[in-house]
Amino acid sequence: MKNDQKIIVGSEEWCALPLLGIPAIKARVDSGARTSAIHAFNIKAFKREDAAWVSFEVHPLQNNRRTIVRCEAEVVDKRVVKSSSGIAEKRYVIRTQLQHGDMSWDVELTLTNRDSMGYRMLLGREAMMGRILVDPAAGFLGGEVPEEMLEEQYSNHTRESSGLNIGLLASNPDLPSNVRIMEAGEERGHRMHFYDIKQCYMKLDAENPEVHYRGGRILNKLDAVIPRIRPDLTFYGCALVRQFESIGIYSLNSAEAIGSSRDKLFSLQMLLRNGLSIPTSGFADSPIETSELIDMVNGAPLVVKLLEGPQGRGVVLAETRKAGESLINAFKSLQANLLVQEFIKEADGKDLRLFVVDGKVVTAMQRQAVAGDFRANLNRSVSASTVKITLEEKRLATKAAKVMGLKVAGVDIIRSRKGPLLLEVNSSPRIEDIEEVTGKDVAGAMISAIERQLGWKRRLATPLDAKPRS
């Protein structure tokens, strides 16, 4: 729609980038963003006739990672761009032609991984100045693109998966973390399969051990599994992972490592044995020792933790000695195993979540509990933000994951006057929160770890692939 030679658009529109070979892409129109961006991955810089060029790949369609368009463009700049969540990132900038309806003009696009975003393209105000008016209540004023047309336009860019066979062992296929892992694997060309842990069963046999799935399907031909085991399924889930390991199928986290991380007391003992710092803690079987336990952790206020509680739950703050005694005795009367732990007042309801993959900290965020909650690592009442971590905190997290034997770990750290202290090492950390806050492709890093372990390499775009434009 036009108004005095300006195009009126809605909050989302179909566009085309003909010079990049992209006939249709849905863009989020955002006048609050200065620069425009396109989802790009496998970004490779190269030289062509002494000019800086870049090759990259694009998933132009939402919720579709089998359709991939390989693009090349000359680099016009490399600049730092700050996202809406405040994350600064250095990006390549290209200039290409944007087409909307029967109008076309040149725009600058930054290349960035928008995996955690719904739209594959963002149209910022620099590309709209002097040309576009936005009606935020409307959408697709330039017209819809039928599904059949998209299929036809992208028929030569849609491929069948030809990579590894990877099974995700979990309980709920619709959990955002599980969805992200499936997407990340498919994006890299792998055949991803979701398997409900409770629907798997095992044949224990010296000659022909097997893992079966409901209906009798045998899973022995998988290349790797990614276990994400619910706390109440730890025993059976670990047994299942051991079975896969016994028949030579790689597990991203081993059964032994998962089992150790789920035993909170044992995991703390392992960390201490390897010289890693934790808040001062006490453990006893008899309620007779309650008073001395409280003294061990420097009195009230103190934290009471159920050892069998799910991650982040079963944790209570006792603000007075009397409250601590009552809590401990009440839990003991229910025959519940618990830890008492010193309360780190100076943390002020904050903790750090560092995500470790294959021995490296991929990203980190800070979590802040709202008023009334003392622990930031509870699943409720938490706000999260990016954070700059210290070298000491990074070393603490990577060593903690190594000590526990975990290839993938969410390491929770609290800052104290004594320095950083370990709270927990989680073997099935949530992914969606930290990806949304930091903009990092955590799920992709997990898939890459499997590729490295199995020696699988995906062919990436290189300057040798580049052909001069006609």
Describe this structure in words.
- The chain has eleven helices and 28 strands.
- The strands form six sheets. The protein has a nine-stranded mixed beta sheet. Strands 26-25-24-27-28 form a five-stranded antiparallel beta sheet, with helices on both faces. Strands 14-13-18-19 form a four-stranded parallel beta sheet, with helices on both faces.
- The protein has 470 residues and is α+β, with helices and mostly antiparallel strands.
- The protein is globular and about 85 Å long.
- It has four domains: 2-157, Cathepsin D, subunit A, domain 1, CATH 2.40.70.10; 165-261, Rossmann fold (3-Layer(aba) Sandwich), CATH 3.40.50.20; 280-343, ATP-grasp fold, A domain (Dna Ligase, domain 1); 346-454, 2-Layer Sandwich (D-amino Acid Aminotransferase, Chain A, domain 1), CATH 3.30.470.
Number of helices: 11
**How much β-strand is present in the residues?**
35-45%
CATH superfamily of the largest domain: Acid Proteases
Low-confidence stretches: 460-470
What proportion of the residues is helical, as a percent range? Answer: 10-25%
Largest sheet at a glance?
Answer: 9 strands, mixed
Query: Largest sheet, order of strands side by side?
Result: 3-4-11-5-10-9-8-7-6
The class by helix and strand makeup works out as alpha+beta
Overall average pLDDT: 86
> What gross morphology would you assign?
globular
Q: How many separate domains?
A: 4
CATH topology-level name of the largest domain? Cathepsin D, subunit A, domain 1
Annotated CATH architecture of the largest domain: Beta Barrel
Q: In total, how many beta strands?
A: 28
Q: What gap, in angstroms, lies between the N and C termini?
A: 34 Å
Alpha carbon gyration radius = 26 Å
CATH class of the largest domain: Mainly Beta
